[in-house]
Sequence to fold (666 residues):
Amino acid sequence: MSAPLLEVRDLQMHFPVKEGVFQRARKVCRAVDGVSFALRPGETIGLVGESGCGKSTLGKCIVRLHRPTAGTIRFDGLDLAPLSASQLKPHRRHLQMIFQDPVESLNSRHTVGDILAEPFLIHGLGDAAWRRRKVLDLLGKVGLPASAADRYPFEFSGGQRQRIGIARAIALEPRLVICDEPVSALDVSIQSQVLNLLLDLQREMGLSYLFIAHNLAVVKHVSDRVAIMYLGRIVEFAEADDAYRDARHPYTRALISAIPEPSPHRARERIVLAGDVPSPINPPGGCPFHTRCPHATERCRVEAPALREVPGRPDHTVACHYDLV
Amino acid sequence: MSAAAPSSPPADVILDVRNLVTTFDTDAGTLTAVDGVSLQVRRGRTLGVVGESGCGKSVTALSIMRLLPQPMGRIRAGQIIFEGEDIAAIPIEAMRRIRGGKIGMIFQEPMTALNPVHSIGRQLSEVFLLHRNRDRSEALRLSVEMLTKVGIPSPEIRVSEYPHQLSGGMRQRVVIAMALACSPSLVIADEPTTALDVTIQAQILDLMRALQRDLGMAIVLITHDLGVIAEMCDDVVVMYGGRVAESGPVDRIFRSPSHPYTRGLLQSIPRLSTPRKSRLSVIEGMVPGLADLPPGCRFQNRCPHRIDACASQPTLGVVSSGHEVACHRWRDLPVAAEVRS
Fold:
């Protein structure tokens, strides 16, 4: 098996929560609390979880929009976690991000052509004529007309703006693209267009994706493997089909059973979890999921389970004390 | 609007919207957001209204509740017959008594539906003070009872708390409690779970189903999520470009969709059963804005089956009893390949 492109080990992102008159940091928000995984070249890992589980923070740590408080992020063998902004710059071109909201992530005062030429400018590549050619080439790749280069982001629909965001992310031919909820703000009929585009680009350019989303059906569709996160930790990690067909963690099972499937009267067993997701500022001790888990025992209240292999399945790990059937 | 008595609909129809036209005056001229929409809601049943942004589903709901943004929004034509009375034509004061009384409302974002500076108890009590003429202590007692009904733990404590102290799911439960406080016969829910996480959405949908079973109200459920429609609704109206594209019983719409738009939508969503990384079928083009809708069939410029006749507006064809479709070509289209389930 080839060496991993990205290897994250014991990653921690704790934010100080400032309080009181003097704004002293009295509490800590454990947004990402000890995450490890490895991503192979050309692979897509899906990262699923509900709001506040730390999935977006994890993505932002990897592209180093945050500086993690502990842990390592080895990208192509080099640990990015301790690097300064200037040390990072030469590596940034290999590591790009697509954001959820294409409206807010595009500068509304620049033409689409300027937005797409910027990555080349920052990295000092080519002259004006060469950049123009590259911009037109990029527009073609994401299915936009050449005339788009001279227009402004607001002149485009949500789906088209997301195409512009994708074009910018792939401009420097990165190796890894972090996709943070890339289709959740789009209309249903537009989502499938953008998902097809992402899959096409992966095949053409050999991209690897870390695909962050809350929609499990979407994540399953694009991913090779899936990590399920809860309160800053990965609770289950498996090959995508296995994660759905053969989920072992009670949270994964509840999450899958909660998806409303667009087929009426399908016989199904719904696991409805009681209560809300606890706050990462004061997470419960023991297993983070024990407050909502239908199978929780005394042991779960005290002892946090580590990720362990599911017996007989080397590529499937789960953080639960028990082997649920 | 004509004051003539409407011909009476079937007895079990509680809400009968007929040829509703709603327009907005904007800088770009008058835009027609809802263009001749008809729908019927039966007593104690759930009607889903589904469509993408700008299809007119929310404006239809706001028109029914007479909550269109003023002064731009206006009901231009049509009737909204609720329990035999045309509520499109009654004075706004009379409508205020109906809203929160016989018609309850649930909105997408519970934080904006609740007043941040008043306690939960005070906001909930208001409903009983206004619509039921109860005194304060009685209203508060009923509020606690209502919070219990929607599954809020320790309601005696929660009544004196403020919206920001509750989670998103709990807030939506409070909004549901307010909507149901006066035992309405109809509840209009506009994207009630869109802002919620999927496990919380499951809780809220379960709650709405349980309350409907106990209290027997009819629900109009507006959503963009076909999964939510499939789980919750008896009947469904698919909207596109301000008009009804297709309507009928939910299992027939999902099993044998007859409008190219409905088919396209159902085929384009990835499901857990879709083979991974396979190519999804798509509806080409963009969701049109109100200002650039084509004349005739609204869907024609995205439709793979377009013919010249599509330049004129199609009338509703009856596929089977209760299942209607607005397409010139629904008879010629290949029988819908049984949509994967």
